[in-house]
């Protein structure tokens, strides 16, 4: 797996990263999220060797990542790194050859990926003449054309329409299913929640949480929170071991229950108060989990095996 092990980085007096540690496993899509300036791009550039860490190490399959290993990583930067006046097909074949593919293998790979991403018909166009969304597709082709062992993508969904988002999501999922570790950053938290197996949240250069969405929900105490739709306000005020967190005009009551409280007892109390239209465990979206874990601060770092 890809191990980011206690990496730190300073720019002058600013501590950009502080002991950042997480792993990306083979066959896993890992979402890397945080606000602007939190340290996502700096971390990715260290993985790629564009920047050197002041401390810590990046390992792949237990070995420190060197220049040879980095050539087997597919990288998609946030800022487009394409030659704007070069034709799409010519550029992708050139990049594939730089990664060691033969001329025929490069041509076949370019054809396969431009077909898959819906831009084969634009192979003869200059990059600068494409829409921003199609330029983004070319960037992904450039990251995939040499059949990388690891994928590192910085804001790959930026500027894409819904159809292109679905195509790119499918590509990332297919690569992960083939055993490739995939890490990408994004501000589109709903997409991250839907696509990713695990998520890492970084704030001011420190990892504040790493885990699946369900694990983040458990950390937030969501497993002990119920939502009941139907009975009028006040029905749960006197229940032992139950705290009323919120009541809204739509007939929803959100409750936190103590560990020794049976949720079926809560349901019976709700039914006694009036018709119950819905009774469920609360599953907060990643947007709420993100806000809560960033405000709560860091948890113990995940230590690679």
TrEMBL record:
Transmembrane segments: none annotated. Belongs to the ABC transporter superfamily. It comes from Pseudonocardia aurantiaca. SMART domains: AAA. InterPro entries: AAA+_ATPase (IPR003593), ABC_transporter-like_ATP-bd (IPR003439), ABC_transporter-like_CS (IPR017871), DrrA1/2-like_C (IPR025302), P-loop_NTPase (IPR027417). Keywords: ATP-binding, Nucleotide-binding, Transport. This is ABC transporter ATP-binding protein. It comes from the Bacteria. The keyword 4Fe-4S does not apply. GO terms for molecular function: ATP binding. Coiled coil: none annotated. Residues 2-229 form the ABC transporter domain.
């Amino acid at each position: 797996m890809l191990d980011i092990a206690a990496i730190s980085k300073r720019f002058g007096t600013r501590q950009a990263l502080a002991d950042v540690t997480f792993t990306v496993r083979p066959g896993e899509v890992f979402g890397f999220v945080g606000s602007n300036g939190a340290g996502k791009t700096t971390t990715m550039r260290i993985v790629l060797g564009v920047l050197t860490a002041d401390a810590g190490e990046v390992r792949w399959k237990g070995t420190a990542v060197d220049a040879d290993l980095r050539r087997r990583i597919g990288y998609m930067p946030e800022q487009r790194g394409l030659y704007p006046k070069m034709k799409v097909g010519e550029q992708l074949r050139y990049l594939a050859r730089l990664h060691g593919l033969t001329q025929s293998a490069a041509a076949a790979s370019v054809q396969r990926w431009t077909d898959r991403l819906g831009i084969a018909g634009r192979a003869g166009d200059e990059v600068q003449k494409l829409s921003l969304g199609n330029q983004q597709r070319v960037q992904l082709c450039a990251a995939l054309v040499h059949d990388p062992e690891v994928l590192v993508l910085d804001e790959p969904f930026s500027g894409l329409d819904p159809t292109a988002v679905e195509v790119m999501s499918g590509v990332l999922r297919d690569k992960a299913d083939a055993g490739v570790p995939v890490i990408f950053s994004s501000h589109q938290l709903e997409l991250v929640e839907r696509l990713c197996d695990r998520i890492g949240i970084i704030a001011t250069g420190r990892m504040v949480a790493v885990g699946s969405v369900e694990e983040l929900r458990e950390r937030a105490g969501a497993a002990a929170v119920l939502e009941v739709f139907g009975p009028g306000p006040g029905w749960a005020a006197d229940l032992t071991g139950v705290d009323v967190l919120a009541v809204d005009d739509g007939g929803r009551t959100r409750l936190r229950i103590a560990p020794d409280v049976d949720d079926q007892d809560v349901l019976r109390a709700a039914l006694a108060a009036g018709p119950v239209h819905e009774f469920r465990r609360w599953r907060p979206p990643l947007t709420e989990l993100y806000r809560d874990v960033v405000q709560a601060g860091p948890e113990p770092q995940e230590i690679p095996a």
